[in-house]
Amino acid sequence: MHERNVYYEHNGEKHTATEWAEIYGLNIKSIYQRMERDNIQFMDALFSVGEKRERLITYNGKTQNLRQWADELGISYTCLINRLNCLHLSVKEAFERPYKTRKSRGE
Fold first, then answer.
1. Residue 25 pLDDT more than 90?
2. Where are the domains of the chain?
């Protein structure tokens, strides 16, 4: 049985198992099956599967994975995933759209 609403942290980001699966474009049931079959923890199962499917993106003649682009562009990885997968923006649109950070309360 897998716990719901458990948050896993990686590189300063915290998400539920389902959210991590969505970010990496993986099926959550496949991750859970791998955990049980190989007797490994969630993050190990996520990344051992995710590494094989890591998306490489070429932009302006340079090829990197999406995390590297996020770091280089100063845009959160989750924001880029949402722009590409949910908003269905082109790579150019996703990378060049201004990134708005949330202001803290009282500003």
1. no
2. 1-53, 55-99
